[in-house]
Amino acid sequence: MIIILDNLDPEILEKLETQATSHGRSLTDEIKVILRRELIKENLEDNASQLEWHEFIDKTAGSIDDDTFVRHPQGDYPIREELE
């Protein structure tokens, strides 16, 4: 697969080349590493966000300690067909 980056800011290109050289990589390999790292980071952030949500639910579920709080009747559950 060939990907062409046109009109890349010369300052960005220079920084990429400098970074690649300092890491002992080609420019192409450096770009691959950066893209891979950013995608992994994004996935970790998504997972962390989900984990934080689950932790919040675990901490707060059933935590209302107020005698005036009333859960109103929810009605009857509909009867569903049995799964086979």
From TrEMBL:
<dbReference type="InterPro" id="IPR053853">
    <property type="entry name" value="FitA-like_RHH"/>
</dbReference>
<dbReference type="Pfam" id="PF22513">
    <property type="entry name" value="FitA-like_RHH"/>
</dbReference>
<dbReference type="InterPro" id="IPR010985">
    <property type="entry name" value="Ribbon_hlx_hlx"/>
</dbReference>
<dbReference type="GO" id="GO:0006355">
    <property type="term" value="P:regulation of DNA-templated transcription"/>
</dbReference>
<protein>
    <submittedName>
        <fullName>VapB protein (Antitoxin to VapC)</fullName>
    </submittedName>
</protein>
<feature type="domain" description="Antitoxin FitA-like ribbon-helix-helix">
    <location>
        <begin position="7"/>
        <end position="38"/>
    </location>
</feature>
